[in-house]
Structure formats: C-alpha cells, structure tokens
Amino acid sequence: MTRVAVLHGGMSAEREVSLRSGQQVITALQEAGYEVTPVIVNDDLKSLIAALTPAPDVVFNALHGRFGEDGSIQGVLDYLGIPYTHSGVRASALAMDKAAAKAVFAHAGLPVAPHRIIDIAELADHDPLPPPYVVKPVNEGSSVGVSIVKPGDNRNAEIAAAWTYGPAMVEQYIPGRELTVGVLEDRALTVTEILSDEAFYDYHAKYAQGGSRHVVPAELPEEISRRAMEIALAAHRALGCRGASRSDLRYDDATGRLVLLEVNTQPGMTATSLLPEQAGHLGMSFPALCAWMVERAACRV
Predict the structure, then answer these.
(1) For residue 62, what is the domain's CATH number?
(2) 70, 140: one domain
C-alpha cells in the first residue's frame, strides 16, 4: 500500500485554509485506499524532517502561501528525495513571485495587465498608476492584502500604513467578470465564472461558505471559453508547472478583453474550492482527483 504524508498548516497567512484543505485530502486519500499520515507543519523544520523519517512513498503538499507554494518546502523534499505532488521548486517560486510570473507570461505572449512594483511608501505619497488600480503583495496568495483603489477613494495613506507585506504590485484594474480555469498536466478542464457580493473576490469570498457562487461552466461565448482555456494551459507550461494548477483571469465583455492575472500552483482543496469543483463537473470525484495527484508525484524535477 502506498504511504502518503499529507503536509498541511504551514506558516503563511493561509494556514487555516491549508488545514481545511489537508483534512479533506486526508479523508479522500484514505477513501482511495492509501495509507495516510497527517503532518501539521509549523515553523520547526527539524520536527517536519522527523515526521518524514522514515520517508513516505509520497508527500501530498496541501500547504498554501509562503514556505508552502513558493519553492521552499519543494526544495526540502527534493533534498530528502521524497516525491511530492504539484509543481517543483522553479515553477513554484516563479508563480508565487507575481512580478517574475508576469514577466514569464509577457515573454510567452500571454495577455497581462499593466503593472509596477513599488515601495509601499510611494502609495502614500501619490497614485502610482491612474486609478482604478489594484494593490497586492508580490508574494502572497488567496487575495491576502489585496485592495482596489478607485478614483477619489483617498485610501492610499490608510493602505500604506497597514501594509506588512514588503514590496507591492500595483496593477491596472480590469473591469468585468472573474474567471478561473483548472489545469491537470496537459489538459485545461473548463471555465468557471465566480460571482460574489463582495467588493471583489477577496479572501472571505474565496473561503467562507456563501462568500461566492460558481457558474460551471461559465456562460460565455464559445470563443472566449476556448481562449481562456488556451491561456491557462499556456501559462501552466510557460512556468514549467506539473500536476495541477489553476489560472485566474478577468474578462471584460464590454470590450472583449481577456487578461491573465495569476497562476496558482497549489489550488485550494476545500469544500468551496474551484479545482475540485471543475474536476467533479467533468466526472472526476474528489478522491480520484487526489489519487491522480499522488500517482504523478515526483521530485528533483
């Protein structure tokens, strides 16, 4: 029987989401017939290595955010020679660094929004871009720390004063519809439209029950759906991702503009998560999805 250690928790702002993802993955893998060892990760690397000794056959990486999807834990597992799910060091680090990822996307000819990297003090002094624009941390996920600045908001100083995330990205705000596309290795799954009563698809909308509604598949012109899936697969390949990823896009139906926002190399695996929902729509159960990830685990790639 294949022995799988499920890493969840972690040290990032997304710890609670990771704990929830991990619990559901543990149950699903047990249902799929694996011998599962839950490992809750904290800031003690020695205890993590001890928990992985003797080494399991596979690590299922259910961590989110910094140290979990930025290449850090991937490097540890590569060093230990333990196969793990999802992307390797390079792709994980690139995807987590929004500036680096956008450079890769632009080089690959994929549509990205105009953006700048700034010291947050610049935001307090003046508008770095003509509003409306989005302010986001360069190295966080799940919309942690994201704000939208609209004309006349006068919130710049407030955002800057509360900032704890290091360098910031300011990005042109793209009006329109929130789309996401899951990718499993060489296959884009489908397009989901995310509808939320929140000001934007923020952390609460992503993870709270009732925080958002998902339309699967999205009700879009066939050409836009096809193009969104092509962009997601091309972004997955451009970063060098393996296994599962999920690309977030914006579509302005007033102009036909479709823009790639980012790629998530560790898509959420909670009850409200988008990738499992898309896989389920196409007939792949949650245990089957988790097993698919385990069977494609690798290291030093």
Answers:
(1) 3.40.50.20
(2) no
Predicted confidence (pLDDT) at residue 210 exceeds the cutoff of 70: no
**What's the burial of 29, exposed, middle or buried (CB within 10 Å: 0-12/13-18/19+)?**
buried
In this structure, are 128 and 62 located in the same domain? no
**Which of the following is catalytic: 69, 171, 262, 277?**
262
pLDDT value, residue 271: 74
Q: Which range has the worst mean pLDDT, 17-21, 182-186, 209-213?
A: 209-213
- Judge if 229 and 152 occupy the same domain: no
Is 16 one of the annotated active-site residues of the chain?
A: no
Catalytic residue among 248, 250, 273, 277: 248
34-38: long-range contacts at Cβ-Cβ below 8 A with a sequence spacing of 24 or more? Answer: 34/1, 34/2, 34/3, 34/4, 34/291, 34/294, 35/1, 35/2, 35/3, 35/4, 36/4, 36/5, 36/6, 37/3, 37/4, 37/5, 37/6, 38/5, 38/6, 38/8
Is 246 a catalytic site residue? yes
Which residues, in sequence order, are bridge partners of residue 118? 168
Q: At 301, list the tokens.
A: 């790639």
Tens of pLDDT, residues 114-166? 999 999 999 988 999 999 999 999 887 657 789 999 998 889 999 999 998 88
Q: Is residue 240 part of a domain?
A: yes
Which is catalytic among the residues 97, 145, 268, 273?
268
- The boundaries of the domain holding residue 105 are 94-112+175-283
Annotated active-site residue 178? The verdict is no
pLDDT in tens, 172-198: 999 999 999 999 999 999 999 999 875
